[in-house]
Write a structure and sequence with these properties.
It contains one helix and four strands; from the N terminus they run H-E-E-E-E. By secondary structure, it is of the alpha+beta class. It has one domain (38-145). The protein has a four-stranded mixed β-sheet with strand order 3-2-1-4, with helices on one face. The relative contact order is 0.08.
């Protein structure tokens, strides 16, 4: 082979190697650009998820708080029925056995959920009508116990 041919062959090899290096560099630059874009999209995706979950919680907070208020009202109503209302029912049922003698105030111990509570039961007579009051009173210890019948 002549020296001119060798020179051309070497020149073409050098050019091919340089072209390959340029292509590799371009691919690396492209890959680095796409990687940067993906990181930005991931951050936006995280922000969208956080915002949407916060909006979901805000919308459903009203429903949850309303349900909680309804449940608390139901519990208070049930406790009221178990406590003073049931004691008042006992006091009225004793009135069915006859008119209460003096003293007109009695104490009654009522147990709700294992907790004893003292009640002051007061009977008052106006003409032919009786009025009965049942009030929780820890100071009713000195009163007479409500009898089983009058």
């Amino acid at each position: 082979m002549s020296t001119a041919k060798r020179g051309r062959a070497q020149c073409s090899r050098i050019q091919r190697n340089q072209i390959q290096r340029n292509q590799i560099q371009r691919n690396q630059i492209r890959n680095s650009r796409t990687a940067t874009k993906r990181r930005g999209y991931a951050m936006i995706l995280v922000m969208v998820i956080i915002l949407s979950s916060s909006a979901f919680v805000a919308v459903h907070q009203r429903n949850l708080s309303a349900a909680l208020r309804i449940e608390q009202a139901r519990i208070l109503s049930e406790e009221h029925r178990r406590g003073p209302v049931s004691v008042l029912a006992v006091a009225c049922s004793r009135m069915e056995t006859g008119d209460p003698p003096a003293p007109i105030q009695y104490r009654y111990e009522h147990i709700v959920n294992g907790v004893p509570t003292l009640y002051r039961i007061s009977y008052s007579n106006v003409a032919t009508e009786w009025t009965v009051n049942a009030v929780p009173d820890a100071g009713a210890v000195g009163l007479t116990e409500l009898p089983a019948s009058f």
